């Protein structure tokens, strides 16, 4: 038993042949005699009937219904139905399918149409149904599976990762300029702090400014990326659910039996477009998907795609030369999506364009005239994709060199900031002053100043003595069993000592202020201990 | 309602983080340490405060129950305490002030007897001798990266309860081989250890409760806790 939508043609045919009254036949014949009345009937069906008839809570797809009806009596003889016999009116990116005898002609670039419909209740119904051609079920399933993955799966993750790395953002121009200036300012501030003069007492201000600005920029970037990513995921999830529940119909004219799966990428993108068309207004709006589908619809006449898609979303290599040639000969194709293979490089295509045959516009040449060429230079752009997710990036025109440059700058600056974060933290949020604790040095020639702190790099120690040489030492965490944080001072008696007291001396604990390799003037002194106290520590 | 609660929680977390970040970085702690000033003056103590916390603008006020400090107010964390003639123990305090505000306080119980081991012995020292029989090489630079064996013998009238401490001379006398090391005297009256090298070597017999200093400009005389000592020059090739 077929559903009312899937089986509308057979239901009509049965009614028309066996159940319709004589008066019904006469009324239908009357409408069919006039082209105007035929058009009125189509308009009523498309706008009135489809708007009012509800099937599973939705309006049935009028174009599909018209296409079905166009093949049964009496509509198969109505001229107004002619265009519905060959198209759903839902064209998308073209596939390049080379005819058996062809070496790559414009006619090999073929429109692909896709629709998704509520699935038949028949358990044996296929997920993907072909119309006008035959293809291997595995190839069709792979295209559908990839489309599902792009909506909500690994494909979407790959797309989001690529977009975060290289994709344009929905910022107004002034925000984009502001962010660029912000990142440049952070970079300049880092350079200033690394090689400029010592800021002295203003170091805290500089560090605060640096950290605040960097945090703001990172927060902005992350917020936008996460928000748009979540929106894309939520919208994709709803479309995926719909695609899983519905049946996909693919149409490719020409009565071809496809050998190989190189139309898979085109099928996949058209399945995505069909899913969007079946339910364009979701409660969750997604800037990423809206931009992609808007561009995809616009690209329908000028883009072609070739590539075998694997269920994992990879675009596998194909025999490409004849396909490129077919695109070059096609008067409307300006962009082609290909697998990532050397023969599809832009330089190769450009070279081929120079030596290739000229494009010939369709249309007859008048009697007594000869065809001549005054063509502008043709251009075919190649978009090589290793993954299907990259085709979304290409079609949606997401790739932005300026954004990529900003991202590289931001990444570099952020790596430097992350490495420098402990130093910045030590200045902006200094740890509590530490006390001197055990262990003391096991060697009489050294003085160990062990501190009870978890952030040893925030301090250094100064020895001032009239008997021993003055010393300055950084505090570091030592990996011995005790794991103590300490400064180690090698003692050296002064040549001209100012006292005979070998216990003379004060050890000062100072806050260390540094940024990566740059050391600044020491900060506040936060501890003073006598030399004798530190020497005796641990033995009393 | 939930949103209001969430916002409140975020605010509390933020304030806690801010306070946590700022907490304790101005905290002051003070610890007192007292040492006998000279062996001959058991009633005088050098008192030193070990101060943790920001050091700028600090001043110190010294207090006791019975004795007295000189000075009683200082800008350095040191003062001298003298016991009252009528007492041998006391409690002392130091208050740390900054900008008319007391920022820390420390206290310590002191005993005149605590310096007893440093007091010169009234009774004559036991009649003992110490010799170094295995003398390490002469090495005026000395230092932590060298090593040699040293041993010796003790003779005379002494009981258990004594040990040997060793020093090697470089730019000063350094105890060997590690700080506070006491080397036991074997039943056959010998002792042995290893040492970093130096120009001269010294061996001292001290009571087991003796607290040797790690570095010295001048070695202690035979008095107080030291009952015998010997100094030899390193063996020259």
Walkthrough of the structure:
- The complex is a heterodimer of chains A (540) and B (237).
- In chain A, β18 and β19 (518-519) form a beta hairpin.
- Chain A has 16 helices and 20 strands.
- In chain A, the strands form six sheets. A five-stranded mixed β-sheet of chain A has the order 2-1-6-9-10, sandwiched between helices.
- Helices cover 44% and strands 17% of the residues of chain A.
- Chain A has helices at 8-19, 22-32, 35-52, 62-69, 82-86, 137-151, 154-166, 173-195, 203-245, 264-278, 287-298, 321-329, 346-355, 388-395, 401-428, 531-536; strands at residues 94-96, 109-110, 112-118, 128-134, 246-257, 303-305, 308-309, 315-316, 335-339, 381-385, 436-437, 446-451, 459-464, 471-474, 476-477, 485-490, 506-511, 514-515, 518-519, 525-530.
- Chain B has one helix and 17 strands.
- Chain B has one helix at 2-22; strands at 29-38, 41-52, 58-64, 68-70, 73-74, 78-82, 89-98, 101-111, 128-134, 148-156, 162-169, 173-176, 183-184, 190-195, 200-207, 215-216, 226-233.
- In chain B, β7 (89-98) and β8 form a beta hairpin.
- Chain B is elongated.
- The model of chain B is unreliable at 10-23 and 114-122 (pLDDT under 50).
- Classes of the chains: A alpha+beta (540), B mainly beta (237).
- Chain A binds chain B through residues 428-436, 440-446, 467, 491-493, 500-503, 508-509, 524-530, 532-533, 535-536, 539-540, and chain B through 21-25, 27-29, 31, 33, 35, 48, 50-56, 77-78, 143-144, 170-172, 174-176, 178-180, 196, 211, 213-218.
């Amino acid at each position: 038993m077929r559903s009312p939508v899937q089986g509308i043609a057979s239901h009509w045919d049965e009614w028309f042949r066996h159940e319709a009254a004589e008066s019904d036949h006469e009324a239908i014949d009357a409408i069919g005699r006039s082209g105007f009345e035929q058009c009125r009937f189509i308009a009523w069906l498309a706008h009135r009937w489809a708007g009012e008839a509800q099937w599973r809570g939705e309006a049935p797809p009028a174009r599909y219904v018209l296409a079905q009806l166009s093949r049964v009596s009496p509509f198969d003889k109505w001229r107004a139905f002619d265009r519905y016999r060959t198209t759903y009116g839902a064209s998308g990116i073209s596939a390049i399918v080379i005819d058996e005898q062809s070496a790559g002609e414009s006619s090999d670039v073929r429109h692909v149409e896709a629709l998704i419909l509520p699935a038949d209740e028949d358990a044996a119904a296929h997920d993907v149904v072909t119309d006008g051609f035959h293809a291997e079920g595995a190839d069709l399933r792979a295209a559908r599976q990839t489309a599902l993955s792009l909506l909500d799966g690994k494909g979407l993750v790959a797309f989001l990762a690529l977009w975060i790395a290289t994709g344009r953002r929905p910022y107004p121009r002034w925000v984009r300029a502001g962010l660029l200036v912000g990142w440049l300012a952070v970079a300049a501030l880092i350079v200033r702090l690394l090689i400029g003069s010592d800021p002295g007492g203003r170091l805290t201000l500089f560090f605060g400014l640096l950290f605040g600005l960097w945090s703001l920029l990172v927060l902005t970037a992350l917020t936008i990326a996460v928000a748009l990513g979540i929106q894309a995921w939520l919208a994709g999830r709803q479309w995926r659910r719909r695609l899983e529940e519905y049946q996909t119909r693919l149409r490719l004219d020409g009565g071809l039996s496809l050998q190989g799966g190189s139309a898979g990428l085109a099928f996949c993108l058209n399945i995505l477009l069909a899913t969007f068309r079946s339910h364009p207004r979701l409660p969750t709006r997604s800037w990423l998907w809206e931009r992609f589908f808007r561009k995809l619809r616009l690209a329908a006449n000028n883009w072609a795609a070739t590539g075998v898609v694997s269920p994992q979303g990879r675009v596998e290599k194909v025999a490409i030369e004849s396909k490129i040639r077919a695109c070059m000969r096609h008067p409307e194709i300006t962009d082609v999506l290909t697998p990532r293979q050397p023969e599809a490089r832009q330089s190769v295509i450009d070279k081929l364009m120079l030596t290739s045959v000229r494009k010939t516009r369709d249309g007859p040449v008048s009697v007594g005239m000869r065809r001549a060429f005054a063509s502008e230079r043709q251009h075919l752009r190649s978009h090589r994709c290793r993954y299907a997710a990259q085709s979304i990036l290409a079609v949606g025109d997401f790739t932005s060199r300026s954004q990529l440059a900003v991202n590289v700058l931001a990444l570099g600056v952020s790596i430097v900031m992350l490495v420098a974060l402990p130093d910045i933290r030590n200045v902006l949020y200094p740890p509590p002053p530490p006390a001197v604790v055990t262990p003391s040095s096991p060697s009489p020639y050294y003085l160990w100043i062990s501190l009870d702190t978890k952030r040893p790099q925030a301090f250094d120690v100064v020895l001032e003595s009239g008997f021993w040489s003055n010393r300055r030492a950084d505090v570091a965490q030592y990996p011995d069993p005790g794991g103590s944080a300490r400064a180690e001072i090698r003692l050296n008696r002064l040549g001209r000592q100012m006292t005979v007291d070998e216990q003379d001396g004060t050890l000062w604990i100072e806050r260390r202020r540094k940024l990566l390799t740059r050391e600044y003037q020491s900060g506040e002194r936060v501890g003073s201990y006598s030399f004798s106290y530190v020497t005796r520590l641990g033995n009393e | 309602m939930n949103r209001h609660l969430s916002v409140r929680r975020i605010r509390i977390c933020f304030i806690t983080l801010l306070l946590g970040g700022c907490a304790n970085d101005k905290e002051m702690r003070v610890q007192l340490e007292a040492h006998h000033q000279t062996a001959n003056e058991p009633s005088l103590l050098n008192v030193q405060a070990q101060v943790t916390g920001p050091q700028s603008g600090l001043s110190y006020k010294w207090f006791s129950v019975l004795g007295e400090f000189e000075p009683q107010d200082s800008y350095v964390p040191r003062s001298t305490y003298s016991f009252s003639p009528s007492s041998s123990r006391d409690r002392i305090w130091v208050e740390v002030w900054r900008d008319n505000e007391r920022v820390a306080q420390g206290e310590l119980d002191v005993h005149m007897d605590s310096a007893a081991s440093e007091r010169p012995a009234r009774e004559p020292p036991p009649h003992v001798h110490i010799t170094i029989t295995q003398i390490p090489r002469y090495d005026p630079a000395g230092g932590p990266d060298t090593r040699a064996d040293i041993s010796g013998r003790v003779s005379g009238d002494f009981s258990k309860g004594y040990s040997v401490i060793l020093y090697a001379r470089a730019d000063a006398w350094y105890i060997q081989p590690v700080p506070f090391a006491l080397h036991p005297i074997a039943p056959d009256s010998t002792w042995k250890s290893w040492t970093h090298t130096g120009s001269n070597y010294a061996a001292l017999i001290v009571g087991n409760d003796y607290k040797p200093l790690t570095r010295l400009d001048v070695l202690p005389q035979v008095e107080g806790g030291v009952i015998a000592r010997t100094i030899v020059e390193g063996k020259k090739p």
